[in-house]
Amino acid sequence: MRNNRWSREQLKLAFHLYCQLPFGKLHSRNAEIVELAQLIGRTPSAVAMKLVNFASLDPAITSTGRAGLGNAGSLDREIWEEFQANWEGLAVECNRLRTALVESQGQVATTALDADEVTNLEDFTGETRRVVTEQRIKQHFFRRAVLSSYRGRCCMSGLSEPRLLIASHIVPWSKDKANRLNPSNGLCLSAIHDKAFDKGLIALSDDFRVLISTELKRSENSFIQTVILPLDGCSIELPERFLPDTNFIARHRMEEFADSKSGN
Questions:
Q1: Rounded to two decimals, what is the model's pTM?
Q2: Which of 36, 59, 134, 173 has the greatest CB tally within 10 Å of its CB?
Q3: Which element (helix H / strand E) includes 47?
Q4: Alpha helices in 151-212 (DSSP H)
């Protein structure tokens, strides 16, 4: 009888995909689920079920009354915790696992990047190309995880044009290596809201309300008055998964927010 128990490698690949798909697309007809099922020798239904099992471990899901399938096993929980502790390493590992499986089946492995990201890699060779490719893989994972969690909409403005959306880090990339790829350290923001957040002109309260800096409030610029200032005190649209960590939000507010720096 064939052993139907999931291996650690299969579970890592499944969780890696779970992070990158909108909650509403965790079904057996999804092309990416079908592709992974073929790759690991399981049915699309089994893969979809496993992804929904992972959802039962996500506080952002369970806090809304949704419980996934509620059948997550101990190994599922281990994989969940392993990702929380090492997002960067596991994103790269999952890319290697997928590449090895594809090549073992006599197929040509391709890097899962957007077209413009692949084109830009043509400028590099050798070790530099490998390092840059790995970095792009990490950034690609973070962007997909954050944008899918926020249903592809800016959490402040509601903008849904993907070419104008940024997977914005709450604690800056340069200041927290361990959480660079943690989706709970991300917000889906439009390019202009991302820049304002990055520059500390806006921040969030611990209950996810927008805080506008005193500097912006004093501005007479019509765009700021019309587009930015009405956000003051408004709640952001929360993600389906990977709720922003309030520790990251508080850290951004204390270290990056203009009013904190000026003492306002």
A1: 0.86
A2: 36
A3: helix 44-55
A4: 191-198
The set of long-range contacts for 23-29, using a CB threshold of 8 Å and a minimum separation of 24, is 23/55, 23/61, 23/240, 23/241, 24/240, 26/51, 26/52, 26/55
The full DSSP string for 22-33 is -GGG-STT-HHH
CA distance 184 to 19: 11
Q: What is the CA radius of gyration of the chain?
A: 20
Tens digit of pLDDT for each residue in 134-176?
Answer: 888 899 999 999 999 999 999 999 999 999 999 999 999 889 9
- Report the C-alpha gap between 137 and 95 in whole angstroms: 8
Coil/strand/helix, residue 187:
strand
Record the tokens describing residue 172, joined without a space: 């800056």
pLDDT tens per residue, range 106-120:
776 666 555 455 555
97/83 Cα distance (integer angstroms) = 15
Give CA separation, 84 vs 47, 146, 213, in Å.
21, 15, 32
